[in-house]
Amino acid sequence: MPLMPDYAPARPLFHAALQHPHRISLIEACSGRTWTVSQAWESVCRMSAVFLSHGVKASDRVAIVAVNNPRHFIAHVALSLLGAVTVPLSPRLPDAQLEVLFTDCRPHLVITDGQSQSRACFSAWPTVTWDELDQALSGVQPWAGTITPRDHEIAAIVYTSGSTGLPRPISLTHAHLWWASVNFRDGFEYSPGINVVGVCAPLSHIGGFNGTSMDVFTHGGTVVVFDSFNPVFILRAIERYEISMMFAVPAMCHAFLSAREEAAADISSWTRPLIGGERMSTHLAKRLHEWGLRPIHVWGMTETGGAGLMCSPDAQSAHPGAIGRPFPYVEERVVDDEGSPIHSPHVLGHLHVRGPGVVTSRADGWLDTGDMVHYDEGGFIHFVSRLSRLINTGGELVAPGVVEDAVRTLDSVADVLVLGIPNERWGQVVAALVVPDPAYASNMQGLPSLQQIQQFTRDFLAPWQQPRLIRWVESLPTTSTGKPDPHAARAYFDSAQ
Question: Which one in 44, 100, 402, 454 has a CA-CA gap of 20 to 30 Å to 214?
Answer without folding.
Answer: 100
